[in-house]
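Reproducibility note. Readers wishing to regenerate the assembly model reported in the main text can use the exact inputs given here. Chain order matters: entities are listed in the order in which they were concatenated for prediction.
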Amino acid sequence: MKVSLKWLNQYVDVPSDLKAFCDRLDLTGTGVEGVDKVGDTFENIVTAKVLEKAPHPDSDHLWVTKIDVGACNVDSNGNPEPLQIVCGAQNFNAGDHIVTAMVGATLPGDFTIKKSKLRGVTSCGMNCSERELGIGDSHEGIMILPEDAPIGVPFAEYMQMSDTVLDLEITPNRPDCLSMVGMAREVGAMYREDVTLPLYELEEDSSLPNASELATVEIEDPERCARYTARVIKNVKIGPSPQWLAERVTAAGSRPINNVVDVTNYILFLYGQPLHAFDYDKLVGADGKAHIIVRAAGDGEKFTTLDGEERDLTSDMTVIATPENAVCLAGVMGGLDSEITEESTTVLLEAATFEHGRTSRTSRNLGLISESSMRYERGVDDNPIADYSAAAAALLAEVSGGSVCPGLIDVYPAPTAPIELQFRIPRFCQMMGVEVPREDIVDILERLDCEVSDTADVDVLQVTAPTCRPDLEREIDLYEEVLRLWGMDLVPPTLPSSPDRVGALTESQLLARKINRTLTAAGLNETTTYSFTDPADLIRLRLAEELSAGEHAAADAAPRLGEFAAASGISGDPVELINPMNAEQSVMRQTIIPGLLRSVAYNQAHGVKNVQLYETGKVFFAHEGKKQPKEREKVAGVLAGAMGDPSWNVAPAAFDFFDGKGIVESLARELALPKMRYRALSAEDAPFLQPGRAAEVLSGGTVLGWVGELHPLAVDAFEATAPVVAFELDVEALGKAARIARDYVDVPEFPPVEADLAFVVDESVTNERLVQCIKSAGGKLLADVRLFDVYRDDRRLGAGKKSMAYALTYRAADRTLTGEEVEKTQAKLIKKVCGATGAEVRG
Amino acid sequence: MAIVEELEALRAKTLAAIEQAADTAALDEVRVRVVGKSGTLTAYLRNMGQVAKEERATVGKTVNEVRNIVEEALESRKKALAAAELEASIDAAAVDVTLPGRVQQLGTRHLINRVSEEICDVFLGLGYTVATGPEVETDYYNFTALNAPADHPSRSMQDTFYVVDRSGDEAAVRGESDVLLRTQTSGVQVHCMEDQELPIYIVAPGKVYRRDVADPSHLPQFTQIEGLVVDKGITFGDLKGTLDYFCKAVFGPDRKTRFRAHYFPFTEPSAEVDVSCGVCHGEGCRMCKGTGWLEILGCGMVDPNVLEMSGIDPEVYSGFAFGVGVERVACLKYNVPDLRLLLQGDMRFLRQF
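Running the prediction on these inputs yields the following structure tokens for the assembly.
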């Protein structure tokens, strides 16, 4: 809300220190969003007097003038010095009082005055016309001021145009502050200053018929309208408003229209009471009377608002109507047919209050948010309406030459009663953590227009809240008022003294941190992508099949999942947004991979070849019959390119399946996941992965997720470049499998015996199988098996064969092994492994 | 006395050879030749038996003398040679220390999660626990239980994402839904008040969603941390002290805070908290738009209605709540110019933190 300090100052002393005033407003809850110094546009423009006027030596129409600007221009000794100004106007003489723009002034139109030479004569300013000053149309010559005008006074000050207008943020609980009177009361309470309110004496013209003879008012539904008043003002002459009124309305952010409309706006800004002025003659029915009915609009009823737009109404909206038709959309906007025009002579002045919820919905649904609707939306007090109507009528009569018919038509079915509250002083002080003196509490509440009285209990005040403060309904509401006005800054900071608390992370939070530590240690960079996603992402990822056109029409949104996608970790349907920002973000993600793939593509498109990303976050699965979806925490990663660019001493290899698996293995180690297994996934199991480079990750029998190279076609569908290695694991499953406590194992005391052994096997024999056989055959003495080489050579080993070389470590916990023992064990091991897998030992 | 003379000659010859040995290998050759198993001097020792009895004492003494001298000479020459050789090998091994090292890439945390964790840690230190809740919430937990008026604009389809209600309830079948993407993590607080024993000291970090078009200063998905304390005797002073401590811990000990009265439906009294500008220290600059202060969070004493709705007696218990935007904190601390960077996954951005 825009507040002119010049205007506000009429009702309460506004501090002269603007910065301090704004700070105080901010601290007490009225945010200052802007400060506009109105007179600033007239900087360096001053009142002046023409001392000399001589013809320009080189021109037949220019004059060389000496202009007295008082102390605004001084010589080197600090004495006033007249300015020499070349002037082309013809309407002035020496001795005239004029307005001069000095060097540095900026005139409307962004025209800045500089020292210049006009046909060889120096000119240090410009004598201004009204139009050049932007205050009128006259351009006949320069503006001539009265003879008694002072010299050397800033023009804005001389014209009393200097003003500061604050743009204030009024919180939704404070409808009272959407008015000058309310702000004056607020400032009075802030500074504990008295407030002088404006007074209007209404003189009714007893020679005119009583208002009740001219109009009737009926409220059909009191829930929609607690009070409706009407006055009739006759013999109105529509015309421009007087200067002061136009100025006020302008300062408040409105545009002067005519004297009647400006008065309604003025009263709205002054008291926060929206008014509506009807052209009475257009309301009069066949019986010569205006019959006003406040009623619900009909569904589908049409109504043309005064902006000329035809609106479709609903029964939630309230209209002001005559028996024939609607004439006003209550609290929102008047109708075109009953608006005040230049021909209007009789005004019916509505002052009413309408239910806030309906007004709010009506204005928002129609996109008609106005100064009136904004105030009704927050609540307009019904109690003072008669007074405000009288003030408006008095002012209207004054500025339009009209006469007010006797009597107020006042239909008031639902008066709002003031609320009685108790204020327990000790409880207040205890809760705020500060002692506030009783007299300060009483004073602050009274300055807010509360009635405060003592009760039998000396610690308890009886408080009647003013009806203009609908936010003061409970004792706590009064606490807030006293605290903010007494000063939040005066409350000493403390910490809660309770001993009953311990700060600790839960197991799952510790797990999350461990996952983050491990993945960053493995070189991955954490990112965040959108939780909303494109329903087509699952098709791109080859997890869902494209629907045929017919199916699309039938099952309007999400693609159905292929039954084969079990290994993807997706269960359930996508969660659909009812009001997405766009189609590409219309469902909640079921896997993190598409978001990460988009980031891979983004990086690759921007010349970043090496990408190592991971994200931990929720995925969402909807289920029929369930209100809320199932949310599961996943951790997913993508690798593209290599861990870094080649350096003089390091050449990172291009990422492949084993980089992804290595990360999963590191995670398994850190979380002490038992019995880790990697099961090859077929094309049917995981169509989104490249067959042959895809594995399910298990701990014992529990599926944790998957790791693999994404299918080149899926990568391509996201406009990224393959290969992209990825994994996605279920965090809850990781947490369940993770072992928090690890068992201690004795550090070996006796030396190991190491032996290398290479088996030549068929391609179909997996490392897992071989290691299983080796371990079981090696028995207790075999402490460790490490694969150190895989070798293929069609000529030497034969086609379809590979050599798997293992470093075996034998050790006994209680003695040094003898060579014989080891040889015996190894011979047995070779026999068993070869027997079980068809392997041959490579000599 | 020919043997003694021979020994003297051998000594002189050997010492000269030791002196001339150019490296440890040559020196070792001399050692083997003279005092090795079949060395020339060793032969004298071994053949003592053949020396005439009367000469034996003199010869023996001489042999031992010579051996001691030779061995001493060998030892000292060996040390000298070893030192010289080590020096030479060190010289040869010198590298250009400005060549890059063998670095293993360490990954990075996302700026927002890093800051979020940092904030949580501050409150862990104050004895709070970290609470989480669902991102898809019901209207009740996101709005109603937090005292938001029924027709509050934030509840509109304009501002809040609603999702399809799959419950099969009649309203849901008609297409209405009271299931939404949470717009604040406050729902977690309500769950805590309903489910947890008192007192409550929690912070609730997490993603929230609002229908804003992504631009440099808005994202439809961002991160909030809300705090809630419910205990006996909690004061507004406790709220001030706690947030003052928080701001200093996160922004630095020299930063000041100020509380501006404000309005939120779920707290009363309510305030917004500013932290003094770190660029101009309160003088006013471009960063703080000339005010000297940066708005950082909203807070207040928990509204008694909110406590009552969760079955807590506001006459016995009081509390405070606060909410801070993690993106806001991160941007103020790191001057991130465009919030969209936070969701792009640009490696060049992520690896800065």
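We highlight two features of this model. Chain B has twelve helices and nine strands. Chain B touches chain A through 91 residues (CB under 8 Å).
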